[in-house]
UniProtKB/TrEMBL annotation:
Pathway the protein takes part in: Nucleotide-sugar biosynthesis; ADP-L-glycero-beta-D-manno-heptose biosynthesis; ADP-L-glycero-beta-D-manno-heptose from D-glycero-beta-D-manno-heptose 7-phosphate: step 4/4
Protein name: ADP-L-glycero-D-manno-heptose-6-epimerase
Cofactor(s) essential for the protein: NADP(+)
Entry's EC annotation: 5.1.3.20
Amino acid sequence: MIVITGAAGFIASCLVQKLNSEGYHDLVLVDDFSDAGQNKNFAGKRFTKQVDREDFVSWLRENQLHVQFVFHLGARTDTTEFDYALLNRLNLDYSKDVWNTCVEFGLPLVYASSAATYGLGEVGYDDDETRLEQLKPLNPYGESKNDFDIWALKQDRKPFFWAGLKFFNVYGPNEYHKGRMASVIFHTYNQIMKSGEMKLFQSHNPDFKDGEQMRDFVYVKDVTEVMYFLMHHRKDSGIYNLGSGTARTFLDLATNTFKALGKEPKISFVPTPEDIRDKYQYFTEAKMDKLKSIGYHKPFHSLEEGVEDYVQNYLSKGEYL
């Protein structure tokens, strides 16, 4: 069996589809399955069992002989969450329990970290593990992810293979339930369909013009390809960036969304909300040399390719991956 935590969520449910497409159906899905909106993400997919996240660690201990691989992708991912106790319970302590159980029973583990750990990029976006304690995340979510990365590296006992993946700005099908935390592409599409235009955030940084803030947007199909590769690779443990490796502007993103819809761009700018203005990343770009160095050489979707596929084959049709 292959275990996927956070399985009702965005990236994990796309991983379930990737595994199904490769012939893997003996999957155990772990999550809080009380959200009907999220449950649509795994409708029609093939799996063996659902396990409530509160029961998972004990279930894993009891069923470890049947488990081949663990993808721990479940987390509290809201970057505006300031309940430290909740984040410590779900993102730090829970992950430690999963890690320690994998160590005890010799199970390989891939877990979700985040590019939110890099903060404003004061020391760059290099997945050099010696720099982790220098990073300055901008919010408690990023802190919780960095805290776990640091903890994992300090452990004397580690899974025989493990990888922490620093996801950059992932977009794609199955993020319908994420609300404010959904990708800018998702919000751009919905704004265009509702009003015929897109309002992007103004720049409050003199080094960037309006709309020229840059992020590393990575298509979820590329993310699942990397995870599938790691499931078979099972060596070269460590922490890896997972982005496209190329920063693009929000204007590029919005313009390509209009193009995928066959519409002329109509873009204006509004002030960045004050509650996120001081913690806003103006530039992110994953340094991808480390992943390439262990043999991953598949090309990533360009922003143009990813947006076109997402808009035309999923958003416009209300389809799930």
